Amino acid sequence: MSETKAFQPDPQYLVQVRGLKEYFPISTGFTQTTMLKAVDDVSFDIKKGETLGLVGESGCGKTTVGRTMLHLYKPTAGEIWFGGKKIEKGPVMTEFRKKAQLVFQDPYSSLNPRMTVGDIIAEPIDVHKLCANKKERSERIQALLTMVGLSSEHATRYAHEFSGGQRQRIGIARALASNPAFIVCDEPVSALDVSIQAQVLNMLEDLQKQLGLTYLFIAHDLSVVKHISDRIAVMYLGRMVELASSNELHHNPLHPYTISLLSAIPAPDPDKAKQQKRIVLKGDIPSPLHAPSGCPFRTRCSRCTAICAQVNPEFLEVSPKHFVACHNL
Ligand SMILES: Nc1ncnc2c1ncn2[C@@H]1O[C@H](COP(=O)(O)OP(=O)(O)OP(=O)(O)O)[C@@H](O)[C@H]1O
Ligand SMILES: [Mg+2]
After folding, report:
1. In this predicted model, what pLDDT tens digit does every residue of 238-285 receive, in sequence order?
2. Contact 154, 141 (CB under 8 A)
3. Which ligand 1 atom is the nearest neighbour of the CA of 22?
4. Residue of the nearest CA to atom 12 in ligand 1?
């Protein structure tokens, strides 16, 4: 009888995800349901203090990866390891819920309009009973407001009184309240005015240095994650297609999808921008309910050959720390 080798966590990583799947049952008729494979067999690691960027088109499964790895959705399959421990029910899960937090994409809908800013920020403190008394709780709220560049009198006001950038600061303060080690930042600036985006990004970077935080940083756009990420993972239709250091991915992209995403970023130098050729992909992203056979990208890929319709390419390390899933490199 063959025995599958048990996963051994590697101490250099804070977060390790293996074979993560999240399938949503979708009703497709009276009695029929089809599985929507929002995330299909995704594996990656994040070192302590590192930022892993996660990019891809709308609907490719980025938010679902973030939420499933935080156990906000129950994984259909796969394992999440955090600080060398497998995340399962019981005390390990309770500790994980404190140590791993989420900053939401939309600072307008993610803050309860009926609660004061202080109560919103203190939610994790109250849930995990982290403060012994009211005074300690109030001091912690003040400290968190200062940490995100807001002032102490903001605690008694309501979220609707604030601008988008300030609301996102409130959302970040809430995520920091339980003293986390890891934060999933789900497109934290995409709903904000361009002029405010850099401020919030800089603040997230400063907080990371100050508090030794580890980030999974989700974005649509490679240009947003380029500066903030140490490494970048590219997703397409529920799968990871490429993963490399930010520098390597920008200078030596290997997957045709990554190459097309990079070609969409305008070059800062006008002479280079003139020479730059944008690679426009044919067709639309297929529905994850009807994903193509074999390689999910093949219907839009200029390199597609017969094998691509038959075999889903493995996610392989083609050079040190550079992973790609493509038959035709
Ligand atoms: N709770 C759910 N029930 C059913 N389907 C879902 C659910 N959440 C997400 N999906 C579907 O799963 C797929 C992946 O969605 P997800 O929100 O993770 O994508 P995304 O990459 O974050 O997109 P965006 O960039 O627009 O935020 C989509 O097809 C979406 O419609
Ligand atoms: Mg999303």
Report:
1. 999 999 999 999 999 999 999 999 988 777 777 766 667 777 788 888
2. no
3. 12
4. 38
Q: Which ligand is nearest to the CA of 186?
A: 2
Q: What is the spatial distance between Cα 161 and Cα 166, in angstroms, rounded to a whole number?
A: 9
Is it the case that residue 304 has pLDDT exceeding 90?
yes
The beta-strand segments (E) located in the chain are 13-27, 33-47, 51-55, 77-82, 85-86, 100-103, 182-186, 214-219, 231-236, 239-245, 316-319, 322-324
CA dist., res. 70 & res. 2, Å (int)? 32
Ligand 2 centroid to residue 8 C-alpha, Å = 31
Q: What is the CA radius of gyration of the chain?
A: 21
Q: Can you give the pTM of this predicted structure?
A: 0.94
Note the pLDDT tens digit of each residue in 197-234: 999 999 999 999 999 999 999 998 898 898 899 999 99
Helices 117-127, 164-176: axis angle to 10 degrees equals 20
**Each residue of 157-169: pLDDT tens digit?**
999 999 999 999 9
- Domains, the chain, in order of start with CATH, read 13-324 (3.40.50.300)
CA separation (Å) from 310 to 52, 94, 96, 235, 304?
A: 31, 43, 40, 20, 11
Q: Which atom of ligand 1 is nearest to the CA of 60?
A: 21
Q: What is the mean pLDDT of residues 55-62?
A: 95
List all residues whose CB is within 6 A of at least one atom of ligand 1: 24, 36, 38, 56, 58-64, 220, 288
Using DSSP's 3-state secondary structure scheme, residue 316 falls into: strand
> What single-letter amino acid sits at 298?
R
206-226 as b/e: b if 16+ CB within 10 A = ebbeeeebbbbbbbbebebbb
The dihedral of CA 58, 233, 68, 166: what is its sign?
A: negative
